[in-house]
Amino acid sequence: xxxxxxxxxxxxxxxxxxxxxxxxxxxxxxxxxxxxxxxxxxxxxxxxxxxxxxxxxxxxxxxxxxxxxxxxxxxxxxxxxxxxxxxxxxxxxxxxxxxxxxxxxxxxxxxxxxx
Length: 115
Prior knowledge:
Number of strands: 0
Number of domains: 1
Structural class: mainly alpha
């Protein structure tokens, strides 16, 4: 195992251990609460919604599909990256989007659904 993957896993799990929140070893993103604040639409809301839909379809709890790139969505994205041996950044880089099957321009790739 690459030391960076191990370090990323430790960084993802350590806050939950300190706070004492409940999580599973496979999906610590589930310990984040679903956001309750209403979303104000941005130019990226549709794109983020497609990412959230795809993460949920693949079994990662990105919270409600609302187009808001919140902490729960970012944690689910980091878990997806970790599970797919992509460098864990929690950001929507090209490699992550390709593995998710989501394109920046609005069209979905590899059978992913788009709104």
